[in-house]
Please model this.
Amino acid sequence: MGVSNDQASNWEREQARRVFLAMLKARQLETKLSSLYKAGKIVGGVYLGKGQEAVSGSLGCSLVQGRDVFAPLIRDQAGRTGFGEDIMDCARTYLGSSLGPMRGRDGNIHRGRPKEGMLAMISHLGAQVPMVTGVLLSRRLKGVLEGTVGATCVGDGATSTGAFHEGLNAAAVEKLPLVVVVANNQFAYSTPNDRQFACADLLDRAKGYGVGAHSVDGTDFLDCVRGIGEAVRQAREGNGPQMVVARLLRLSGHGEHDDGSYVPDTLRAGHVGRDCMAVAAEQMVTEGYATEEEIAAWREEVTDEIQRVLAVAQQDPVPDPWHEEWEAFSNNLSTTSGA
Amino acid sequence: MSITYVDAIREAQEHLLKEDPRVFLYGQDIANFGGAFKATKGLAEAYPGRVLDSPISEDAMIGMAIGAAVDGMRPIVEMQFADFSSVAFNQIVNQAGTHYYRTGVPVPITVRLPSGGTPGSGPFHSQSMEAIYSHYPGIVVVTPATVSDAYHMLIQAVELDDPVVYCEHKFLYRWLKANSINGDGLPLGRARITRPGKHATIVAYSAMVHEAVRAADRLKVESGWDIEVVDLRTVKPLDMDTVLASVARTGRLLALGEAFPWGGVTAEVVARVVSQGFHLLDAPPKRLNSRDTPVPYHPNLWAAHRPTPETICLAMRELLSF
Model:
C-alpha cells in the first residue's frame, strides 16, 4: 500500500472514534429498547446486538452512505448507526410510529431505506446476500461500480442456508465487491455450532467459494476495526468478494424474550464472552484515541440524544387502519373487485 | 411470414433491450446458448454484457434481480422451467412481494416461467405455478395465451413498477403461430372475450384458452351451443368486470385451468362469481382442472391428466343440461 504509517494511524484513530461512538449509541439505545419492551411499550420483540457492536460498527463505519449498499441483520444497530442511519428510524420502527420508514407496516430490525443504500431485511436468513449482490451487479451494468462496496451481515446459522450459499457463490462468479461478515456468536437462537456445521472453521468456506478470507476476534475492538476495514478495502479495490468471520458471543438472548440459559457459563467466562464495549473503551484510552474524559462526555451526550429521540418517538402518531391504504401494489392495476 | 409464441417472447426481449438501457436478462444457459427454449437466441451477441448466464441458483437469481431492480434496473429473469421457481419461492413472495408495502420502494422485476405440460416432460418440467404466486400480495401474475399477448404483455410487464410473474406456456412455444404481433392494445389486468357466445361462459387462461375454443367449436357443430370463451390474460389481479359481464349474458360458468385442482385460479373465479354474481347464475358453476396427481411422464397419461376438448365438452354438457 502506498499509504504512509502516519496516514494509516491517522485513519485508524478517526475510524476507531467513529466506530466507538456508533457502538456506544447502539448499546445505550438497545438497553433502553429492552426496558421499553419489558415495560410493554414495544410489541413483537427486541433484538440486541450486545457483544457484537465492535464487529457491526466496524463494518458500518467502513461503508460510505450514498455510494455503498448495506444490508444489516438483526444485531447490527452499531453498523446501522455507523452507516448513517438516524437512530430515530430505529426508535420509530420499534414503536410502530407512522412517521418511521416502515410506518408500522413492519417493525423492529426489519427496516431500511433502500433508496439511501440501506436494504430492509426480511426474516429469512441469507436472503439479503443475493440482494446486495444484485445491487452491485446493477452498478456494474450502469458503469458506476468502481469504488463501490456492498456489505451484509449474517450469523453462524445463516451460513447453513441455501440463499447464503447461492448468493456468495454468484457474487464470486461475477467477482463483485461484496463483503459478507459472519458474526459467529456460537449459537443460532439456541442451536450450538456443533449442530450447525461440521467444518473446523467457517472461514474454510471462503476458500470453497473462491473469495477473500478474513478472521477477526469479535471481542477485540481494534482487531475488528482493522480486520473488517481491510476486508472492505480489499473489496473496494476490486479484489472480489470478501468473507469475514468474527468469533464472539451474543451477550443476550436471541431476543429479549429469551434468557439465553442454554449458553454455558464456561463460554461466558471465557475469551469469547468478553464484552467488546469494555475492551473498546480500554483500547481507545490505551492507544490514545480518546481520553477517559472524552468517553465519559460521549456517554452523556449519547444518553441525552437517546432520551430525546425516544421521547419524540413515543409521542408520534401510530398507524390508523381506517387511513391505511391497504395496497401492496404501487401500480393501479387492481380492478374494482380488489386483487 | 409467421411468428411463433416463443419468437414473440424473444422479440419482446430484443425490443426491451434495444429501447430501455435498464433492462438486462439473467438466467441459466440464456447467453451464448440462447436459452433452453431459444427465447434469448442471439441476444447475448447483440447486447453484450446484458444477457448473463447465471449459476444454477434460483434463489440468488431472483434475489439479485430484486437488488438490481431496487437500484433502478429492469431485470428479466428466465427460470429454465417454472417448476424450478419453487427454489426461488422465498425471494419472490417474501422479498419481492412485500417490498413495496414495507418500504414504499417498488421492485420492477419480471420473472419468466416456462410453464405447463408438454408430452414426456414429467412431474418436474410441467407445472403451472400461477396460483401459488397469485396467493401472495404484491405480485402481478400474467398468463398470455396468444402470440400478440406474449409480446405485448412481456413489454408491459417490464414497464410495470411491480414484480410480475410472467407464465409462458411451453406447449404454445412453437405450435402457436400468428401472422403478426399486432395486438388489440389491452392493458395488463384486463381479460378478453376470445370467442363470443350466449349459452355458457368458459373462463380460461394460458394454453387452456385454445382447448376451450376447440371444445366450444365442437359444441357449436354438434349441438348448436354458442359458448363464450373469456381469456383472463392476467390472473392477478383478476378482471372480474369482464368475467361477471360474461356470466350475466350466459348465466352459466365453467372455470378451466391446467393447474392442480385444489384451490387456485379456477377456485378463485368460481368463488368470486358465486359471491358477487350469484343472482346471475342459472346453474351451479363448474370447475375443470388437471387431476390431483403429479404431472405424469407418458404421453397417454399426460394427455388424460390435463383437461382436453373431450373432458371440457363433457363438463359443458353437464353445465348446459342443468
Q: What stands out?
A: The radius of gyration of chain A is 20 Å. Chain A touches chain B through 49 residues (CB under 8 Å). The mean pLDDT of chain A is 95.
